[in-house]
Amino acid sequence: MSTSDQDFMRAALAQAQEAAAAGEVPVGAVVVRHGEIIARGRNSPITAHDPTAHAEIVALRAAAQALGNYRLDDCELFVTLEPCAMCSGAMLHSRLRRVVFGAADPKTGVAGSVLNLFHEPRLNHQTAVQGGVLADECGALLSAFFRQRRGQQRQLAHPLRDDALRTPEARFAGLPDYPWSPRHLSDLPSLDGLRLHYLDEGPTGAARTWLCLHGNPAWSYLYRKMIPGFLAAGDRVVAPDLIGFGKSDKPKKDQWHSFTRHRQVLLEFIERLDLRNVVLVVQDWGGLLGLTLPMAAPDRYRGLLVMNTMLATGDIPLSAGFLDWREMCAKKPDYDVARLLARGNPQLDTAECAAYAAPFPDPGHRAALRAFPALVPECADDDGADVSRQARDFWRHDWAGQCLMAIGQQDPVLGEAVMQGLRADIRGSVQLVPLPHAGHFVPEQGEHLAARACAFFTR
Prior knowledge:
Helices cover 37% and strands 17% of the residues. It has 15 helices and 15 strands. The strands form three sheets. The protein has an eight-stranded mixed β-sheet, with helices on both faces. It has a five-stranded mixed β-sheet with strand order 2-1-3-4-5.
């Protein structure tokens, strides 16, 4: 590949960038004669209302006009993407001496990907063709364009309500150990148009589904160390972000949030996905809400993995550790999420702590973080207290599944004493996994805990 080939492809790339700026698929082309560019073209079917206005066709037309001849037998064409059948036919009719392209097009390219018109012996003319010149740069421009377009389409599919915020996607770029594809719902009745984000990995028909519910101020990122172990066992993993957290929409007003509303969202979510053979995985608010779910549809659940959480029934005093946490949140509503995670989990690196804080770039995105501490039922008539008492009765008398309880013993908020109290409320044998060095965010012990859970619930 000569230096001049690269120079001419860069000129074609400049045309492709102009196409992208105009909202067109970023493909650009130049026609070269005797080492000089005589014509340029960029994709413009949308702008020109012309399905034939591909970059190559535009460049070929301009070259023919410049030379006063539709035959371009002493010319070369450089294009950033492998030509389609239409453009390749025009190139062959023009008798181009040579065609050079950048990125291959495995879907519609006919210079070697889908087929090769240029080497078709039954045609009366063959044009030399070469691919792969600056392929990475050409491909990167196309990938960026379609990534942005997919984001715009998702936005249109789930329009943002005026009274809510949506964390910019750029905040989630390059998160460590979080490679999974986002999924969204906005048509559940209780969402009222808000967009709920969730992960859904593994086979839909798996014999076991892990439903992982996070707490405050975490999000589905909390389970990144456990999910690989569940998937390796051949299972399905579903992990939603509660409204106000993670990649889900964030109502601007603290008052939007209530125990009953969040519980209803989860009930409708489980029904919509028709989750069955569920092992419910809960921590913090994931348990406050999640432990009230199985009594609504017991046949969906087969196991419970419970970590540092509680049932807030309103008839038992809240722990001193939780009351201290709630007081801190009231005094410092804009506390540093990354710093909080780092303080309780010294094994986390800076990037991991920053990932926890990614959904909350400013106070406007933090309404849920401000609201949730006060939503924990404290009195018998508080929202959520009655349904939590009903759930306690279910766990005491009706639960028929297995239970594995992991206790982060360094947790000052929902530690050993709280968890032993919860253990007494769960019918049947509860296998304990004491974690003497773990704090509140127990799923950070993920690899070991996921392996232990898979073995336990396979028995």
